[in-house]
Amino acid sequence: LPAGFGSLQRLKMLNLSSNLLGEFPAAVLALPGLEELYLSRNQLTLLPPGLCQLRQLRTLWLDNNRIRYLPDSIVLLHSLEELVLQGNQIAILPEGFGQLSRVTLWKIKDNPLIQPPYEVCMKGIPYIAAYQQELANSQPALKPRLKLVLMGLKDAGKTLLRRCLMEEDRQREDAGGPESGSAQPRGYPGQQRDAGGSKGIEVMDWTADAERGLTFIVYELAGDPSYDVIQSFFLSPGALYVLVVNLSAYVPQHFYRSVGYFLHWLGSKVPHAVVCMVGTHADLCAERELEEKCLDIHHQIALQEKRDAEGLQSLVQQVDEALGQDFDLRCSSPHATFYGVSDKNLRRKKAQFQYLLNHRPQILSPVLPFSCRDRCQVRRLRDKLLSVAEHRDIFPNLHRVLPKSWQVLEELHFQPQAQQLWLSWWDSARLGLQAGLTEDRLQSALSYLHESGKLLYFEEHLTLREYVFHNLPRLIDILNVFCQRDATVLLQKLLSDTHIDELRATQLHHYVEGFLLHGLLPAHIIRLLLKPHIQSREDLQLILELLEKMGLCYCVNKPKCKPLNGAAAWYKFPCYVKNEVPHAEAWINGANLSGQSFVVEQLQIEYSFPFIFPPGLFARYSVQINSHVVQRSDGRYQIYAYRGKVPVVVSYRPARGALQPDTLSIASHASLPNIWTAWQAITPLVEELNVLLQEWPGLYYTVHVLCSKCLKRGSPNPHTFPGELLSQPRPEGLTEIICPKNGSERVNVALVYPPTPTVISPCSK
């Protein structure tokens, strides 16, 4: 900054973002009246201790720098309301950080946080304060535990690989080796495990290195697409992912199905995920064949990563070119790539692309050949997993510091006698007292255990916050039941009672048929399916609430205010729906049921997913919108419903070729004077989708408003206006926009901009 900059004593706001500042500008400290300071996207490594001199500072943005630690004096900025630190190298927060109690906008992700742990920091300042207070009153505890996730196709060999690794450690234990380990299912006594291959999702603990106390929590995901709706819940940051490929069955033409798809899926859910490639059944391949297949996988991964990165870089370049234009010039022609998009939204879009570019998957090479018959290969894989897990630059969270009381609380929740499916809040509070935690300090500990994937505790849900779901293996067994597509297996569960007559058996058979075709089940049949997990009506209601919260099902006939008065409650599982809804398809294509074109105006928002459509997204979204709609009719790819008296259609269209993206659209219609009713109908649905998509921070997607004139003409390729316009106010004086597909037609501005810019912009996250 120029000499004398500090003389600007009346300066209130200073934005120095996106520069090349390597040091914090000393002149800024001479501005005591400064209230807002933006230093995002620079090259800062240190902050001066004198930062506390800026006592009136309310906003401080320091994201995407190279800051390794914060000065202790930062806790003295008592007026601070916004503190953005994401994308740095911060491992430890200063003591007394909870003093920043006025901070409401807080961003800290993408830092190698150890103390407090990442999961605590992400919850906010009050949770950081509780952690630091607990640490001050309790001994620190270090317990290295790492989540290990096995993923791959159904026949990849995940189950065999897991058992070979754990059997190797059992043999070491039997031999009394210095590095003996052990493996045991996380669950309850008598839990049945498949003797052949995996059935659904499984979880167990594996003490891979008893000497160093390193434990893996091993999640084996199912390779069956039937489990798509629940599997994304088990992909989380801070885990080591093993992508398993059956080398004996692998052919280069099926690379994307075997490898590429899983990398796209994982990258969209967990940016910067650490992936170890393992090729199983190596003993069934000749030496040259083995080498060629491993090299091909390595080569095709590199090609896919290169294509994805080049695509994102091209998008960054397009945004830069648009930013280089004057805003008025961008608004002058609807042919412009980012027609009407504000500079602010363009900068957000560029930041999103840069984030995706900077957080590509960390794929460890080469592909490790593996055969259970080769003890050397088994030991080599085990040693590889241990060395990666203990690498502090890759997994700093492994060495997180916890208050002793939190660790004791975790152990008490998972003690062998804790066989129940869930604990009440008061049961959990009693365990908290044993751990030395009073009720007011228990909340933060439970929240940490939830965020770190040890248990489920929904503190913001009106019903579920009264319970703690501590027995994850039993809960996963329940989830597995609702991903089962085999009618024989479902019938066996229902017919397990020997006192069932022929008529009753026929009824149960019809229930199963209806479930597998339409996704419908009454509550009492769900209770039968979940034996022996469900013992009481209270258990059943709680599990149904949980399934609805997770987006697996919704109650079809639940009244808004009064109970059902004894009528059977029916639940719909959208992931099972197979029937189509042709009348919704006709409506969305611009015709009514008799085939005549609409005279009203159509409003349609379309989401495009060029890389991957998140598995299970449509089914979960179907559940999320249920509270907003009535008179709904569901198909495999469409939902036809009403918002009040206004019709809405949600439609998913899978990609029809390699160059076409998957799309999900939300549509409504009304006459032009009443088009605000169509906006009012679709806005909550758009907002629900945007909230749901935030669970996939590494996902690239675009949003567009389709041209109503093109839709009315039945155009197969309607013109699209940028979705960023949804979050911008209508330009003053603008009444019509020319459709570039047909220069003579003009689109009313009310069909492109909502009445008020309340819709969440896709790039605002």
Automatic annotation (TrEMBL):
Keyword Repeat: yes
Record's keyword terms, sorted: Leucine-rich repeat, Nucleotide-binding, Repeat
GO-annotated biological processes: regulation of signal transduction
Stretch list, region Disordered: 169-197
A single GO cellular-component term on record: cytoplasm
UniProt cross-references to Pfam families, sorted A to Z: LRR_8
Domain of life: Eukaryota
Taxonomic placement: Eukaryota, Metazoa, Chordata, Craniata, Vertebrata
InterPro entries: Leu-rich_rpt, Leu-rich_rpt_typical-subtyp, LRR_dom_sf, LRR_domain-containing, P-loop_NTPase, ROC
Molecular-function GO terms, alphabetical: nucleotide binding
Protein name (Swiss-Prot/TrEMBL): Malignant fibrous histiocytoma-amplified sequence 1
Gene3D superfamilies (alphabetical): P-loop containing nucleotide triphosphate hydrolases, Ribonuclease Inhibitor, ROC domain from the Parkinson's disease-associated leucine-rich repeat kinase 2
Annotated Roc domain residues: 139-392
